[in-house]
Amino acid sequence: MTTPNMHYADLKDSYLFFHIARKTKAYLDAHPGTHLYRLGIGDVSLPLCKAVIKALHEAVDDQALKETFHGYVSELGLPELRSAIAQHYRKRDIGLSDDEVFVSSGASDELGDILDLFDRSSCALITEPAYPAYVDANVIAGREIVHLASGRENGFLPSPSPDTKADIIYICSPNNPTGAVFSRQQLKEWVDFANANSSVILFDAAYEAFIEDPDLPRSIFEIEGARKCAIEICSLSKTAGFTGTRLGYTVIPKDLIRKGMCFNDMWIRNRTTKTNGVSYIIQKGGAAVFTEEGQRQIRGNIEYYKENARILMCALDKAGIWYCGGKNAPYIWLRCPNGMGSWEFFDYLLNEIQVVGTPGEGFGACGEGYFRFSTFGSREDTVRAAERLIRLLGD
Q1: Of 224, 255, 290, at which residue does a domain stop?
Q2: What is the pTM of this model?
């Protein structure tokens, strides 16, 4: 009899967004025609920028002619896109070679696939609150998981301790869900820890473009020593609106070596074995993101979401609610008022002012009592939701 992967039985029910959808549907069924102000979704609301759309159209036209038709592309990514991404780093004084960049179908896919590089006996440390897929991917692999909780006392930015042991370390900065961003010194502590313990940091930089403070690092490779201990996984989903288009990239330095195995070489072998690459059309659209005009246009979209954040932060300030995130991230993480639990607060907002957010409990046990707002919604809904929050919580 075939034996399935029994670790799937160890997965907790992925109830967070299912439960949110069920509660909102029940509310709308009971209150037909009611408009909900959705501040929970992590999807973008603005369309792809004009430079990307133009490149996508041109790439589609390429596929219509024999002379310009493209079949399979490199499993590692179009050379011009890999070069454009590496140059994007070099403009920020981060030295990368083109062949240290790998094009992917998005950060979510890559965060799961990258675990192929590690033996199943490796222990994974996950700083929490955390993106739930970090945990689930390691549960599926049957890997031991160490949960490192954080809280308000350290700004949701935990540090390693001398007794911490882990082979794989997950760090997300700016963080989803808290919006907290590690400083250079804080990341240096993790890099030094990883190098001292022969660990590897998986650095999720999906939201790096939202950092506006020049003193905060946007890449782990701004930190001395990171080339020997880190892999950086990036996404164009929130940076450039590619949530429905799917494109990202991963940086694996050639200096990352463990037990004589070069992770860059291993990933080349993995990709050339397990994928036929990302669509030529999508990659041409992605290349447009890294042009001067593309960068100017996506900055406009990012600023739109950051203004949404400022509107919500102003409302929370007026209501006297503690929060972090927002300034350098598209998420705002707030303390539920009056000792409410996160699901209790969800129900309170839904029933009283028709605002939908995300309960913190869904991101780990230390998220209980907290709540996440996303800033990716429309301006009109954000403004109206902020007004309602002030009226409800301002007393």
Answers
A1: 290
A2: 0.95
